[in-house]
């Protein structure tokens, strides 16, 4: 109705009055509203309320105001010196991030955790995890804290939300550290839920093996700390009964390394003092040379001899395995160390080395069978001594 | 004033701090101590001092709680959430929720309590019932020139968990120490943590105050992170003190081993466990003159020295039988006590030496050969086979893991070798060790596994192990740590610090100290050290050193072998070197933390 476009910008222009319309319209007589027109024009504000009371009402208006907060640096320093501090005054997103970055910068884990906990309570998960994921130090500290508190589900959430998928296996390791049987279900559940995230094949295999070992132990009501320990116990129980099928199945199940497997075999047989089986299992005849036998094992012959010597086998057993070593000097060295006199004496006799033989005689107990053997060799006129 | 006397008197300040905390309660009090805190506390203040400060009874923290009657109770624990919860539970079970006593229960957390400890109390409604106090003792002067904070878990926290929680306490310890010995004018910081500690010390000085001494007792300080020289901790040492620590384990400067009752499970093991002789003595050069003589000697010399001393004792005994009466009287008055204590010392050391030979002897020779090859960078595949075989042959998780870590740091293992070893390791020692894999990655021994298939996870970057850029051999050559002819090194009367490792390797801190004490031009020092990693040098007209004394702060633990190497350098240069660390460690300690 106003032709003037600036009508609304000028407050001094005529007040918009409902009464204006009334004058032009035809509702002037006999209208129930007409009589009230005059009464609906509001009164001036200062006639209904005093200025003082108006001020009270206006002061009450509640708008968010930017509070003046202490500088972030100052609060962090106060925290560093273990003085009183208030974090909940930092409500703006910008301030919160400044706090976090300052905490990381000063290098105090206590402060970092305090700030992170404050952020976790005052930011929604999305924002919280996004910001954390941009700060590796923060993620680490929060993860350490959750591990300390044993809050593994929250830890899983943290890793998933901040893109640390490769760390999921760690949670599995933590879960499996202390296993009463009930937790096996938890482990299996975890595996089902997160198996997609275990992205290296080694991780997958390891976790499957953990579960396999636990299943095996539960099924057979056994309890041992490791695969190898379980193997040892199996060997003991199986071989004392005679058969060994379960042992081989167990080996296949976990794809146990040959060296480890044979070392266990050797050690258990020695411990059980089953020398015949030891010799039968680990030596084979060399088809060209009649009496010679060779070591049938992935273990180096010298190491094998060292291994069996710990269990104090009878001399003939050590001699048997010493003869499998091809390097004569190594044989001599070990024989001297283990006091297998027969081999040392034979060696020196073969070498026609009288001096060495005499020298060795000093280390032999007088009137022992070895001593007599040396004496008889020395007195043997058939031997042409070199020295 | 003699620096050593000063360092030995540091505990007077710790006592003053503790006294202030205890005096909050004026009435009689009881103290409950966590078992592992007892030994260091003994060296800080001792039981007598506690009792003379109003402590009526001292208990050990046990599952069942003793009755405290009406006395106030101070619990003292290391800063660990599980322990804290244990104590809080114990207190909680004793009090009535409706009317809890005030000012009765206190927990002293060493070295400081964390903010989330207070959160725990708040959640349980115990915030005003239990008061928390932080107490950080001054470094303990365990032996001449050896300062140790004797705080547990620092290496694990900093280097395995990559956590900054303990950094402020290390900086506070250094700042405290500066009040007594003054702040040196020449400061070198090597490594991420050393640099952070230095900047935190700056903040403490700025906000809380600086030492008012004009002159420092020490010419310079070198702060260095443990991971700058792992081989010094991983190689088998050859000096007596280091071997004591290897075989028995030394805590707080005390070597103790009690005869254990025959454990059936141990008897059952395939690999026979070697029996150790029981011993109990303090590694203190001032009290034990025999120890002072042999502590840094190469082990082969130790046995001959001990046998000479035994013979001397025997001749003394024979002589004493032929003494006249007045001679006997003078002997008993003056010499008998000394002779008795010397005899006890010698006996202890003989037993210890015997055990060292028994425990290490069987594999020592081969181990030495392999370690020598590793340092010379030869026979890599043989070395690796030895490590893998060791899994079964030694059947000791720490020993085999240690060799593996040494190989990772020096000769570098391929991805397949690492995988192969780890699989066998976990088979041998149990899947409970699996988590150690994460620690090995964090410490930088093995690289983060590469993502095989492309996943939605764009953030997994391939993390190179720290040592690929800091090649071990090029650094070692730059600092001349590897003698060209180890067999020619004199182990009996050593002139080269490599004797601590049988001639094959000189610890890095010794070479750095040597450079500084010999006034190598500062630019050369800067360029050499800069190649190692993050480095800061502050020279406030302090170089060349005005006082021929150096403080070396090793963050993460220091070994007796490194200390011995520095002691030799002291003798050769006439300088004084004080070594400060959070703990005296050996390689097995590090491995135990990785496997925990």
TrEMBL record, chain B:
Belongs to the STXBP/unc-18/SEC1 family. InterPro entries: Sec-1-like_dom1, Sec-1-like_dom3a, Sec1-like, Sec1-like_dom2, Sec1-like_sf, VPS33_dom3b. SUPFAM superfamilies: Sec1/munc18-like (SM) proteins. GO terms for biological process: vesicle-mediated transport. PANTHER family: VESICLE PROTEIN SORTING-ASSOCIATED (PTHR11679). This is Vacuolar protein sorting-associated protein 33B.
């Amino acid at each position: 109705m106003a032709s003037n476009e600036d009508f609304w910008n000028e407050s001094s222009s005529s007040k918009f009055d409902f009464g204006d319309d009334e004058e032009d319209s035809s509702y002037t007589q006999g209208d129930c509203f007409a009589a009230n027109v005059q009464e609906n024009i509001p009164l001036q504000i200062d006639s209904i309320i005093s200025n003082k009371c108006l001020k009270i009402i206006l002061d009450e208006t509640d708008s968010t105001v930017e509070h003046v907060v202490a500088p972030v640096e100052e609060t962090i320093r106060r925290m560093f010196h273990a003085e009183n501090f208030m974090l909940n005054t930092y409500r703006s997103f910008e301030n919160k991030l400044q706090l976090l970055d300052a905490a990381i910068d000063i290098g105090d884990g206590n402060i970092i955790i305090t700030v992170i906990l404050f952020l976790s309570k005052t930011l929604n998960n999305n924002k919280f995890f996004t910001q954390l994921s941009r700060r590796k130090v923060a993620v680490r500290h929060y993860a350490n804290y959750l591990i300390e508190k044993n809050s593994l589900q929250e830890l899983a959430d943290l890793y998933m939300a901040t893109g640390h998928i490769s760390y999921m296996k760690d949670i599995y390791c933590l879960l499996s550290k202390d296993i009463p049987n009930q937790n096996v279900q938890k482990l299996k559940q975890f595996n089902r839920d997160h198996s997609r995230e275990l992205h290296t094949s080694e991780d997958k295999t390891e976790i499957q093996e953990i579960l396999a070992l636990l299943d095996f132990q539960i099924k057979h009501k056994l309890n041992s700390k490791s695969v190898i320990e379980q193997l040892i116990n199996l060997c003991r129980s199986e071989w004392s009964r005679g058969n060994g099928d379960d042992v081989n199945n167990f080996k296949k199940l976990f794809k146990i390394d040959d060296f480890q497997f044979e070392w266990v075999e050797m050690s258990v047989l020695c411990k059980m003092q089953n020398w015949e089986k030891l010799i039968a299992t680990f030596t084979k005849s060399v088809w060209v040379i009649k009496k010679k036998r060779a070591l049938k094992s992935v273990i180096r012959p010298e190491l094998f001899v060292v291994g069996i010597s710990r269990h104090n086998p009878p001399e003939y057993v050590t001699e048997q395995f010493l003869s499998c070593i091809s390097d004569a000097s190594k044989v001599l060295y070990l024989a001297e160390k283990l006091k297998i006199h027969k081999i040392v004496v034979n060696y020196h006799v073969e070498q026609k080395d009288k001096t060495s033989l005499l020298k060795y005689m000093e280390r032999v107990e007088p009137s022992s069978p070895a001593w007599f053997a040396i004496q008889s060799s020395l007195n043997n006129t058939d031997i042409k001594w070199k020295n | 004033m003699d620096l050593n006397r000063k360092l030995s008197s540091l505990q007077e300040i710790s006592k003053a701090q503790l006294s202030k905390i205890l005096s909050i309660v004026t009435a009689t009090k009881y103290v409950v101590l966590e078992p592992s805190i007892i030994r260091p506390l003994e060296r800080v203040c001792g039981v007598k001092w506690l009792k003379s400060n109003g402590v009526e009874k001292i208990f050990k923290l046990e599952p069942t709680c003793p009755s405290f009657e009406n006395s106030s109770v101070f619990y003292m624990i290391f800063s660990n959430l599980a322990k804290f919860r244990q104590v809080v539970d114990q207190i909680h079970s004793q009090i009535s929720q409706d009317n809890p006593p005030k000012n009765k229960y206190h927990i002293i957390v060493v070295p400081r309590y964390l903010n989330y400890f207070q959160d725990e109390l708040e959640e349980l409604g115990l915030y005003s019932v239990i008061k928390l106090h932080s107490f950080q003792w001054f470094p303990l002067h365990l032996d001449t020139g050896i300062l140790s904070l004797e705080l547990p878990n620092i290496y694990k926290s900093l280097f395995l968990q990559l956590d900054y929680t303990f950094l402020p306490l290390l900086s506070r310890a250094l700042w405290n120490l500066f009040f007594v010995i003054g702040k040196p004018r020449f400061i070198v910081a090597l490594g991420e943590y050393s640099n952070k500690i230095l900047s935190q010390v700056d903040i403490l000085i700025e906000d809380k105050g600086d030492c008012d001494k004009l002159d420092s007792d020490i010419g310079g300080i070198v702060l260095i992170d443990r991971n700058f020289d792992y081989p010094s901790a991983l190689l088998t040492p050859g000096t007596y003190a280091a071997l004591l620590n290897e075989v028995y384990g030394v805590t707080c400067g005390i070597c103790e081993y009690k005869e254990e009752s025959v454990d059936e499970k141990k008897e059952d093991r395939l690999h026979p466990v070697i029996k150790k002789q029981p011993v109990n003595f303090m590694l203190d050069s001032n009290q034990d003159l025999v120890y002072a003589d042999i502590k840094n000697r190469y082990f082969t010399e130790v046995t001959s020295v001990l046998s000479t001393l035994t013979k001397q004792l025997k001749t003394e005994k024979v002589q004493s039988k032929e003494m006249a009466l007045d001679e006997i009287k003078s002997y008993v008055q003056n010499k008998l006590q000394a002779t008795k204590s010397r005899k006890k010392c010698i006996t202890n050391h003989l037993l210890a030496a015997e055990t060292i030979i028994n425990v290490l002897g069987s594999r020592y020779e081969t181990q030495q050969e392999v370690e020598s090859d590793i340092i010379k960078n030869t026979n890599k595949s043989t070395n690796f086979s030895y490590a893998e075989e060791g899994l079964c042959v030694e059947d000791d998780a720490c020993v085999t893991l240690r060799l593996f870590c040494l190989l990772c740091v020096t000769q570098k293992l391929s991805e397949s070798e690492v995988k192969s070893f780890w699989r066998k390791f976990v088979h041998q020692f149990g899947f409970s060790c699996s988590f150690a894999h994460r620690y090995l990655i964090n410490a930088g021994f093995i690289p983060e596994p590469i993502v095989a298939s492309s996943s939605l996870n764009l953030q997994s970057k391939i993390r190179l192990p720290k040592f690929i850029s800091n090649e071990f051999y090029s650094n070692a050559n730059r600092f001349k740590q590897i003698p060209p002819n180890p067999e020619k090194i004199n182990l009996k009367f050593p002139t080269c610090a490599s004797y601590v490792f049988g001639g094959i390797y000189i610890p890095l801190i010794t070479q750095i100290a040597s450079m500084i004490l010999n006034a190598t031009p500062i630019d050369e020092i800067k360029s050499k050290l800069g190649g190692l990693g993050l480095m800061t040098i502050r020279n406030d007209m302090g170089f060349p050193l005005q006082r021929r004394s150096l403080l070396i702060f090793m963050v993460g633990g220091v070994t007796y072998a490194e200390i011995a190497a520095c002691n030799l350098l002291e003798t050769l240069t006439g300088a004084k070197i004080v070594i400060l660390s959070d703990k005296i460690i050996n390689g097995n300690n590090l491995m135990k933390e990785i496997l925990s």
